[in-house]
Automatic annotation (TrEMBL):
Subcellular compartments: Cytoplasm
Similarity-based family: Belongs to the RuvC family.
Catalysed reaction, written as an equation: Endonucleolytic cleavage at a junction such as a reciprocal single-stranded crossover between two homologous DNA duplexes (Holliday junction)
Positions that bind Mg(2+) 1: D7, D141
Binding sites annotated in the UniProt record for Mg(2+) 2: E68
Cross-referenced NCBIfam families: ruvC
Role: The RuvA-RuvB-RuvC complex processes Holliday junction (HJ) DNA during genetic recombination and DNA repair. Endonuclease that resolves HJ intermediates. Cleaves cruciform DNA by making single-stranded nicks across the HJ at symmetrical positions within the homologous arms, yielding a 5'-phosphate and a 3'-hydroxyl group; requires a central core of homology in the junction. The consensus cleavage sequence is 5'-(A/T)TT(C/G)-3'. Cleavage occurs on the 3'-side of the TT dinucleotide at the point of strand exchange.
Active site location: D7, E68, D141
Keywords: Cytoplasm, DNA damage, DNA recombination, DNA repair, DNA-binding, Endonuclease, Hydrolase, Magnesium, Metal-binding, Nuclease
UniProt entry tagged with the keyword Zinc: no
Protein name per Swiss-Prot or TrEMBL: Crossover junction endodeoxyribonuclease RuvC
Cofactor(s) of this protein: Mg(2+)
Cofactor note: Binds 2 Mg(2+) ion per subunit.
Gene: ruvC
Amino acid sequence: MRVLGIDPGLTRCGWGVVDGRPGARPTAVGVGVVRTPAELDLELRLLELHTAVTALLREHRPDVVAIERVFTQNNKGTATGTAQAAGVAALAAAQADRPVAWHTPSEVKAAISGNGRADKEQVTLMVTRVLGLSEVPRPADAADALALAVCHAWRGPAQQRLRSAALAGGIGAPVVQRTLPRWTGVAAR
């Protein structure tokens, strides 16, 4: 499974792509950061971010996009920008017909380090070790995006099976596949 991890941010949006599956060592495919200048108007920053994520989706063709769920932050301005960046990434994934998985920071930290309260240095160190990287991914946003991708590669399939079982009414019940209508754009008049 190929996973595109997104650590959302308006100034720095980390991204990382891994190939992996539960119980196996994942492989890093690509990592980086999308930066948008603070002096640009908000809508232009969001457009730049959307364009970059769309390009990543085309280039890497992930099976799923894992995005950090915006929880709470002390700085409301930062939280708003982070939520906007997460929404733009989810929109780009939907337009590319790719499923989106949301993971909390503590879930990602627990998956990558065994400690849901690990600090950024611990997460970066474990990402480097787990992926067998020769260099530490920098900045921390890039390492966090790789951690998101690894978390989903390891935990996503089991979570999906549990979700399917819950939707079907429990273990052993038939799973009813629902097809949601796809957005086709705004019709011209």
